[in-house]
Design goal:
This protein is an alpha+beta fold. Helices cover about 65% and strands about 5% of the residues. It has eleven helices and five strands, in the order αααααααααααβββββ. α1 crosses α5, α2 packs across α6 and α4 packs antiparallel against α5. The radius of gyration is 37 Å and the shape is rod-shaped. It starts with a helix and ends with a strand.
C-alpha cells in the first residue's frame, strides 16, 4: 500500500466517523437515540470550570477598564501587544494635568503666590501619575497576566479535552446503537452472529476510549481548585498594589496641603467648614494611621476672638503647635507638634499667617497650625 492509498483510506475513515457522530448527535436532539450521561462529579467539575472562565473574563476586562479608562488607549495597547511591539510612552492624565499646572505657574511667575501654588500642585500631580504607572505595571504582571494565562492556556486545554470527550461519547453511543440494531437483526435471522460479536467488540473499545478520556478531562478539571488558589494569591497582590498606590497618593496630597498651608482656611473663607471637617474625619486604613495622625483639623479656635484681638493689637501671645509644619521657604518657621512658641502680628501680614518666634528663630507660621494659650 502506497502513501496515497493510505491517505485516501484515512480520509474515508475520518469521514465515516464524522458522519456517524453527526447522525448520533442529530438523533439525540430529536429524541430518537439514547445518550450516555456523564457522572455527577464530572458534570459539577465542568460547571465549575465554565463558571470560573466566565467570571475570570469579566473581572479581567473590568480591571483593565479600571486601570486604563480610555478605550482608545486600551485598543492601542492591545494592537501593540499582538504585534509584539512596545507601545509609545505618553503622559497619563495626572502627569498631563501636572505639566499644565507647572507651565501655568512658570508663566504667572514662581514668585507669585498663585504661580508658586500651581507649580507645587503640578509636581504633586506628576508624582501621582508616576504612582499610577507603577500600579498599572504591577497589576498587569501580578494580576492580569495570570488571569489571562488561564483563559488562553489552561481553559483552552480543558475545552480541547472536553471536545474530545464529547466525540468519544458520540462514538460510544453510535456503537451502542449499531449493536442494538445488530441484535434486533440477528433475532430476525437477518445477519450472522459474527456481526453482533463485531458490534459488541466495538462497544467495548469505544467504552474504554470514552472512560480514558473522561479520566483525562476529570484530572484537568480538578485542577480548577488549584487555579482558584493561585488567583487568590494574585488577588492579594492586586490589593497590596492598590493599597500602596492610594497610600502614596494620600501622602503626596498631605504633603501638598502642608506646603500650601492656607488650604484649610480657604475652606473656611468659602463657607465650607462643615464639608472640610467631614472629609478630614473620614476613617483611614490602618496602613495610613501614622499619616492620618498628622492630618490638619479645622478648629473653631482658629477663628476665635483671640486671633482677632492679637491681629488688632501690637502684643504677643503664647501658642501651642497642633502638628508638624515644614517651612516652604526661608521666610517661614518650621514647627514641631506640641511645642510652645511666641506669636504676634505685624501690619500688612496675610490674614492666614502670624509671625512666630522660638528663641533666636522667627518666621511666618500658618494660624491653622496653632492653638492660642491663655
Amino acid at each position: 500500500m502506497n502513501i496515497m492509498d493510505f491517505n485516501v483510506k484515512k480520509l474515508a475513515a475520518d469521514a465515516g466517523t464524522f458522519l456517524s457522530r453527526a447522525v448520533q448527535f442529530t438523533e439525540e436532539k430529536l429524541g430518537q437515540a439514547e445518550k450516555t450521561e456523564l457522572d455527577a462529579h464530572l458534570e459539577n467539575l465542568l460547571s465549575k470550570a465554565e463558571c470560573t472562565k466566565l467570571w475570570t473574563e469579566k473581572i479581567m476586562k473590568q480591571t483593565e477598564v479600571l486601570l486604563q479608562p480610555n478605550p482608545n488607549a486600551r485598543i492601542e495597547e492591545f494592537v501593540y501587544e499582538k504585534l509584539d511591539r512596545k507601545a509609545p510612552s505618553r503622559m497619563n492624565n495626572p502627569e498631563l494635568l501636572g505639566q499644565y499646572m507647572i507651565d501655568a505657574g512658570n508663566e504667572f511667575g514662581p514668585g507669585t503666590a498663585y504661580g508658586n501654588a500651581l507649580i507645587k500642585c503640578g509636581e504633586t500631580q506628576k508624582r501621582i501619575g508616576t504612582a499610577d504607572r507603577e500600579l498599572i505595571q504591577t497589576s498587569a504582571i501580578n494580576f492580569l497576566t495570570p488571569l489571562r494565562n488561564f483563559i488562553e492556556g489552561d481553559y483552552k486545554t480543558i475545552t480541547k479535552e472536553r471536545k474530545l470527550l464529547q466525540n468519544k461519547r458520540l462514538d460510544l453511543d453510535a456503537a451502542k446503537t449499531r449493536l442494538k440494531k445488530a441484535k434486533v437483526a440477528e433475532a430476525r435471522a437477518a445477519i450472522w452472529a459474527e456481526e453482533v460479536t463485531k458490534s459488541e467488540q466495538e462497544v467495548r473499545i469505544t467504552q474504554s476510549e470514552f472512560d480514558r478520556q473522561a479520566e483525562i478531562t476529570r484530572l484537568l478539571l480538578e485542577g480548577i481548585s488549584s487555579t482558584h488558589a493561585h488567583h487568590l494569591r494574585c488577588l492579594n497582590d492586586f490589593v497590596e498594589a492598590q493599597m500602596t498606590y492610594y497610600a502614596q497618593c494620600y501622602q503626596y496630597m498631605l504633603d501638598l496641603q502642608k506646603q500650601l498651608g492656607s488650604f484649610p482656611s480657604t475652606f473656611l473663607s468659602n463657607n465650607n467648614q462643615s464639608s472640610s471637617t467631614s472629609v478630614q474625619s473620614v476613617s483611614t486604613p490602618s496602613v495610613l494611621a501614622s499619616a492620618s495622625a498628622s492630618l490638619p483639623s479645622v478648629s473653631n479656635s482658629i477663628v476665635t476672638s483671640g486671633i482677632s484681638e492679637l491681629k488688632s493689637s501690637s502684643g504677643s501671645r503664647k501658642a501651642r503647635v497642633l502638628y508638624d509644619y515644614d517651612a516652604a521657604n526661608s521666610s517661614e518657621l518650621s514647627l514641631l507638634a506640641d511645642e510652645v512658641i511666641t506669636v504676634y502680628s505685624i501690619p500688612g501680614m496675610d490674614s492666614d499667617w502670624l509671625m512666630g518666634e522660638r528663641g533666636n528663630q522667627k518666621g511666618k507660621v500658618p494660624i491653622t497650625y496653632l492653638e492660642l494659650l491663655n
